[in-house]
Recover the amino acids of this structure.
């Protein structure tokens, strides 16, 4: 049915073009027949020749403008928008020469219309008469996809639809249209002028047929001259300004700056002198002659890239260490308490709590995890930024890449699901693993596999740089490299507070180490689930490898850990602070830092602001609601203070939401920063693991919506806004931030 | 590794399309055709970053050349005007020539670099110059179902062979 209706013959549409053609050809023919012989005889033969040339030019341009494809886009295939379809914002902003330009999502064509592209409402291509411009709801069924020309197509550099040529004027045929106007104006002027010459000079007898015809032709020419010349002048101005009719009429750049202009001369030359652009439709389909056959080559994976991100492990180890030191019992107990379901063993509960948080974070998991009591959020689903967008999410490490590769094998959701399950089930097994080998390490990665190496490094650091070590781990754990980095950079107050915690000697080291992985956006940031699953699969294998890899890795710049730094740091910092306090009664600055860190890492959940020190009960309360939240409502912003703001816990957020919010905003936005180039916002998913932190105070389930950048509708045209609001909206493709044990927050991509 | 498979099955070891990555246009410099050189995370484990970036940069260079406004394109326009555009029936435009070069380049890249890694580039022209579509293939042989099938067949073959050799 739709196909049939699409091809309905509408004669009314052809009236203007027919009239134009008739007038043009008819009048000119009469002119040549009646006026030119006399003129050529008595004035000069050049006149008809000149007029003939001009007329030919007019006809050629008229034909090209009428019959040439204006630059119709082929419809996007199914694959291209499968991520965008349900969560895509209506607009995606892109920066063109420093000016933000919005690209509108076209539901019919299923892509974001490139700048200056539009649908034509009148062309026969549209199935329905009504415009496709901005149409989001025409049921797909109404547009037959089999016939590209029966469905609406956007035109690039859409100027307008000209009824006189019955065609859209777009990028490809604009020059012909423009030349048609110019030549038609010239032709009209010529016909009128020479006719006037003929009449005035009475070349032949006045009352003859020729005279009458000439006078008629002159009248027609004179009549058409005014609108045509007006239109010509209008387009001359448009070409000089580098605008399209569409833009001029809709006033897009009125008073503003046109990002598409290159100056008058360049604009004119671009219109007239550039090589004609190719058409997209109707091209012969290129035969795919290249065969893809396995086995496939894989890129070399350096040791430094293999690190798996383990956020909780380091923290847990840290906690263990602190515990062993005897100065952080409070922290330990707190972490233990923080777990929603009080675990039999504090340590295990801590881990499980983390897992819970981790798993909770993932959207898919949330439902899954809800059943389990203390799921340790060792892995969270990370969905790599997809196509589009913008995905700037990068996987820092090859292993993560592997994980992501596994991810890519299936749909991200499915991966998460599968990831969830195994990770969930394997939690208990992972726990001891991670617990045993706390590798805090420079490359703090989510993978428990690296825990072995980390533990070794941690142990080595134990002597002197315990704080540094764990602080470093905190840092690295914080989040994906870039996210972490941005956290560090942005929330200087918060995340950088760790530096202050560190001894001066440590800080530079840390900073320098940090600097290494920082420039890279979080590449290879993989789904936590995958990493967990793979981790368990290859725990034994990789332990040795990581142990060896860890050392060289540590020498190299540390990979930013997916664990959110602030969360992790918060707890750890808190524990450190407490320890220090016990030793020296240090002032609250550490706490400040802690809070700052926590803030950044933690979403606005009030829990985050709690210092680990605060009563464990508060942790519990915080945690349980938090733990539940992600599970039950993954989509909900984790940030949102699900639970009543804890009394105090360390400032972490001690400073009430306000510092937290900016931090959060920052943390959120940095992900967007990273992918700042993309208008929508970063696709990076900040995966903040907080397995350790789960039991600890806040389960800050933060749904990082960093991922939302182009995808989630919530982002819409605005970049992810900092503060609690954006946090709440993340679900859209976003990342849920979960705060785990030890104050690490990780964002689980939904 | 794939288990030893029957000879026929070995020949049929094939790849299946896993997913597609889309490299979007880079509009930072206006509407000229440029693609983002940002490395998609999905390709992290499949291809070296540098190779990918080089491919995209070369493509961008080609497109810039196609859209270049210079002497040749100007002459082409004049010639076209002079012949009332009949010249387009015989001659292909400068842009088309560059597009042919691009198509050859993409095929070349596919053969040499991308296909061995289980990837396939699609000419952006087919997508309206909006995206570079990179298809990611996975080795079907490595999936569970295919491997189980192949292992059973191989075991069957081994048993038959042993029986034959016995007496």
């Amino acid at each position: 049915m739709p196909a049939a209706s699409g091809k309905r013959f509408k004669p009314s549409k052809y009236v203007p073009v027919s009239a134009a053609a008739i007038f043009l050809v008819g009048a000119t023919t009469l002119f040549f027949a009646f006026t030119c012989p006399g003129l050529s005889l008595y004035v000069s033969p050049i006149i008809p020749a000149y007029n003939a040339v001009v007329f030919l030019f007019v006809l050629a341009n008229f034909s090209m403008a009428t019959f040439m494809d204006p630059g119709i886009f082929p419809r996007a295939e199914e694959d291209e928008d499968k991520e965008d379809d349900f969560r895509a914002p209506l607009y995606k902003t892109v920066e063109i020469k420093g000016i933000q330009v919005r690209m509108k999502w076209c539901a019919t064509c299923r892509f974001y219309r490139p700048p200056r592209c539009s649908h034509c409402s009148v062309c026969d291509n549209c199935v329905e008469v009504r415009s496709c411009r901005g149409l989001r709801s025409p049921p797909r069924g109404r547009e037959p996809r089999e016939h590209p020309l029966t469905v609406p197509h956007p035109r690039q550099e859409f100027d307008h639809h000209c009824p006189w040529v019955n065609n859209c004027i777009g990028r490809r045929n604009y020059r012909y249209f423009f030349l048609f106007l110019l030549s038609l104006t010239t032709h009209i002027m010529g016909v009128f002028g020479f006719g006037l010459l003929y009449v005035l000079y009475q070349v032949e007898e006045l009352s003859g047929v020729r005279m009458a015809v000439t006078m008629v032709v002159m009248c027609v020419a004179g009549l058409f001259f005014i609108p045509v010349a007006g239109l010509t002048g209008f387009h001359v101005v448009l070409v000089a300004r580098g605008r399209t009719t569409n833009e001029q009429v809709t006033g897009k750049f009125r008073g503003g700056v046109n990002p598409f202009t290159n100056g008058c001369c360049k604009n004119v030359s671009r219109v007239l002198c550039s090589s004609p652009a190719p058409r997209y439709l109707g091209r012969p389909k290129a035969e795919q002659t290249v065969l893809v056959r396995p086995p496939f080559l894989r890129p070399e994976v350096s040791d430094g890239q293999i690190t798996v991100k383990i956020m909780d492990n380091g923290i847990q180890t840290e906690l263990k260490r602190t515990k062993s030191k005897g100065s952080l019992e409070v922290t330990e107990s707190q972490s233990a308490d923080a777990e929603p379901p009080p675990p039999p063993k504090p340590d295990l509960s801590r881990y499980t709590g983390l897992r819970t948080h981790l798993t909770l974070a993932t959207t898919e998991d949330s439902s899954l995890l809800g059943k389990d009591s203390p799921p340790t959020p060792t892995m969270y689903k990370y969905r790599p930024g997809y196509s589009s967008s913008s995905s700037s999410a990068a996987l820092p490490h090859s292993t993560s890449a592997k994980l992501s590769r596994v991810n890519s094998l299936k749909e991200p959701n499915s991966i998460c699901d599968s990831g969830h399950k195994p990770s969930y089930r394997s939690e208990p097994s992972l726990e001891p693993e991670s617990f045993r080998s706390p590798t805090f390490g420079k490359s703090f990665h989510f993978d428990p596999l690296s825990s072995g190496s980390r533990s070794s490094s941690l142990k080595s650091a134990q002597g002197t740089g315990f704080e540094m070590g764990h602080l470093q781990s905190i840092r690295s754990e914080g989040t994906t490299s870039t996210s972490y980095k941005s956290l560090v950079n942005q929330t200087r107050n918060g995340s950088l507070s760790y530096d202050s915690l560190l001894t001066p000697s440590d800080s530079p080291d840390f900073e320098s180490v940090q600097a290494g992985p920082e420039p890279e956006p979080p590449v290879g940031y993989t789904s936590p689930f995958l990493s967990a699953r793979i981790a368990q699969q290859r725990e034994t294998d990789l332990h040795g490898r990581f142990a060896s890899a860890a050392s060289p890795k540590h020498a190299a710049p540390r990979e930013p850990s997916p664990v959110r730094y602030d969360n992790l740091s918060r707890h750890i910092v808190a524990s450190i602070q407490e320890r220090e306090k016990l030793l020296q009664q240090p002032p609250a600055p550490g706490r400040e830092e802690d809070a700052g860190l926590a803030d950044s890492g933690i979403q606005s959940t009030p829990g985050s602001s709690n210092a680990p020190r605060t009563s464990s009960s508060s942790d519990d309360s915080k945690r349980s609601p938090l733990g539940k939240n992600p599970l039950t409502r993954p989509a909900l912003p984790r940030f949102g203070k699900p639970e009543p703001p804890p009394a105090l816990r360390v400032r972490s957020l001690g400073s009430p939401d306000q510092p937290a919010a900016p931090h959060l905003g920052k943390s959120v936005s940095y992900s967007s920063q990273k992918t700042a180039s993309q208008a929508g916002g970063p696709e990076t998913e900040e995966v903040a693991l907080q397995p350790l932190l789960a039991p600890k105070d806040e389960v800050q389930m933060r749904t990082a919506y960093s991922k939302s950048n182009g995808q989630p509708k919530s982002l819409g045209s605005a970049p992810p806004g900092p503060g609690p609001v954006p946090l709440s909206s993340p679900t859209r493709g976003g990342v849920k931030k979960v705060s785990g044990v030890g104050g690490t927050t990780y964002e689980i991509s939904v | 590794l794939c288990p030893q498979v029957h000879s026929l099955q070995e020949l049929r070891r094939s790849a299946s399309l896993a997913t597609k990555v889309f490299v979007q246009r880079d509009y930072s410099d206006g509407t000229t055709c440029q693609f983002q050189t940002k490395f998609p995370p999905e390709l992290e484990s499949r291809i070296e970053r540098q190779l990918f970036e080089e491919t995209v940069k070369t493509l961008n260079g080609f497109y810039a050349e196609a859209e270049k406004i210079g002497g040749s394109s100007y002459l082409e326009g004049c010639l076209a005007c002079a012949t009332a555009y009949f010249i387009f029936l015989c001659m292909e435009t400068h842009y088309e020539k560059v597009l042919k070069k691009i198509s050859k380049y993409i095929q070349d890249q596919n053969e040499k670099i991308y296909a061995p890694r289980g990837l396939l580039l699609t000419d952006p022209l087919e997508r309206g110059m909006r995206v570079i579509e990179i298809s990611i293939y996975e080795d079907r042989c490595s999936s569970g179902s295919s491997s189980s099938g192949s292992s059973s067949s191989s075991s069957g073959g081994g048993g038959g062979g042993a029986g034959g050799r016995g007496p």
In short: Strands of chain A lie at 91-96, 99-106, 111-112, 118-119, 154-155, 160-162, 167-169, 702-703, 735-739, 745-749. Chain A touches chain B through 80 residues (CB under 8 Å). Residues 125 and 150 of chain A are 5 Å apart (CA to CA).
